[in-house]
Design a protein that fits this description.
Length: 156
């Protein structure tokens, strides 16, 4: 069974939108759970970043770079959570959040790598619509199909 990386990418896009909305709408609850009161503005900024990433991915789900931008965001999240863990090392919510972000990072990396290995359907479709170069072995508008393949026409 082969993974459909474009569908997985769309799932990550929707996930980003949902996570971003939660961070924008409930930053106080998030900071309280992580013992990080006073950092609500940072949580909101992370939420805006997640929404931007989600919209970018949903706009072009086959582009690995857009999913890769989530990896950079995950690094920021892990940095902030490392500080929260240093300040509150026994808080299970902090460690749960770290585990969650590590899992999301793994998914992001795997999907981005998978997208790089699968040719973009829009690119391959565009390549077939383009006229081939002369001498490429394929017929051009000025060259009949039978001569492009080196086959002489049948004269009846």
């Amino acid at each position: 069974m082969r993974a459909d990386y474009k569908q997985l990418s769309k799932g990550l896009g929707w996930f980003s939108l949902a996570l971003g909305a939660a961070e924008l709408l409930a930053p106080r609850k998030i900071t309280q759970a992580l013992d990080a009161q006073g950092h609500e503005t940072l949580v909101k900024a992370f939420g805006a970043r997640e929404i931007a990433a989600g919209l970018a991915i949903l706009g072009a789900p086959a582009h690995a770079e857009r999913v890769g931008s989530r990896v950079a965001g995950d690094a920021l999240d892990l940095g902030a959570l490392a500080l929260a863990a240093r300040n509150s090392p026994r808080n299970p919510w902090v460690w749960g959040a770290i585990g969650f972000v590590v899992g999301a990072t793994i998914a992001d990396v795997l999907v981005a790598r998978g997208l790089k290995q699968v040719p973009d359907a829009e690119e391959t479709a565009g390549a077939e619509l383009a006229l081939p170069r002369a001498g490429s072995g394929r017929a051009t508008s000025a060259e009949p199909a039978h001569t492009a393949r080196g086959v002489a026409p049948v004269v009846g």
